[in-house]
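Homework help board

Subject: predicted structure for assignment chain

Our instructor gave us this sequence and asked us to write out the predicted structure in token form, then describe one feature. I got the tokens but I'm not sure how to describe them. Can anyone check?
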Amino acid sequence: MTFKEFSFSDALVDALDSMGFEEATPVQEQTIPKILNGKDMIACAQTGTGKTAAFLLPILNKIASSPQDNISVNTLVIAPTRELALQIDQQVEALGYFLGVSSLPVYGGGDSKEWDQQKKALTQGADIIIATPGRLIAHLNMGYVKFDSVQHLVLDEADRMLDMGFLNDILTIVDYLPKKRQTLLFSATMPDKIRGLAKKILVEPEQVSIAISKPASGILQGAYLVHNHQKIDLITELLKDKKTTYSSVLIFTSTRKMVNEIRRKLDSVGIAAEGISSDLSQTERESALLNFKNKTTQILVATDILARGIDIKEINLVINYDVPSDAEDYVHRIGRTARADAKGVALTFISEDDVYKFIRIERVIEQEVMKIPLPKGFSKGPEYSLKSRGSSNRKRGNYRNSRGGGRNSNNQKNNNRGGRNNSRNKKHYKKN
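My token output:
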């Protein structure tokens, strides 16, 4: 289905043409007509499916079709992170240039000048406000925010916001809004807590579900069984081989400390990399993202703040330095590559402490990820037994620790067997 079939205004159609938008994605095709009809909506779609445009385009069309003499806040979009708020704002700016629609992101971490700009927009009006819950609550507590004119409320990455503890903030914000409004809830997953929130704030919503919790088909997934003390050497070994193969590499780790450690290790062997985590200033984070997006930086090391809400195309390789806490985070991490039907590679390092965690991830995605033998010169990593799926207790034998680096004969035999079983996958991985 093309965007011209949605009966958008001529100005919006011209904007889409100039930006190269042609065919709608499945989530856009299913949601846009319902949003244009004023329906409340619950939309479940994984990252990279085009859901931001799915809610922005019909809202922009409505605003552009009914311009107001006095600008007031027409639409409030709530997002979990600064990065996602900025990304949404950038899309509004790009399209709003053609439509005369104004927007402003409201997020924490800035200086007093940014606070004053946000206050001005909230008091004098902007068509669309994109806000993180915490910073918006801070403005609301000052007493000058007026949301009487809000016609649309959008909750983006709603499951992530609830995981981050923003449920009460969201309910507080909703109390400031008119009862009569259109509410759109977009989420990558649909657990019971999201459905509970939907019952409280939506009215007879339409429901759309697209490709829940499954990695894109264009992602070639692989994993290394590796002890924690071997990880830093493994990542330098892999990137020395792949530096010329992949133009854009994103490395995820769970802690800020490891971001700096990985970056320093790569720099020490002549592999340039930048790091980004929550302890950087907003200016530093935006600079690192821009360098990565422009390909000035080839390798970016990041914590999970980037797992959602970063829209950078042509990331060739994603490396999970450690296994994420759950399957949804895994899908979102590796979803940074192979966007828009492209191809990409995602590699995960599985330590002895993460074996069962990764087994659970394989259950959710309904796929066994190929295990790649460690490069020559590395001692054997921990075991990985698919027969142990039913237990997370080491004492019940879900996996055996081989910290001895291959000195235990039983571990050696099992790992050799694993290497033979994976030889076909290894050839496939190299070919790709």
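Reply (TA_rk): Your tokens look well-formed. For the description, you could write something like this. Residues 219-431 form a domain with the Rossmann fold fold (CATH 3.40.50.300). That's the kind of observation they're looking for.
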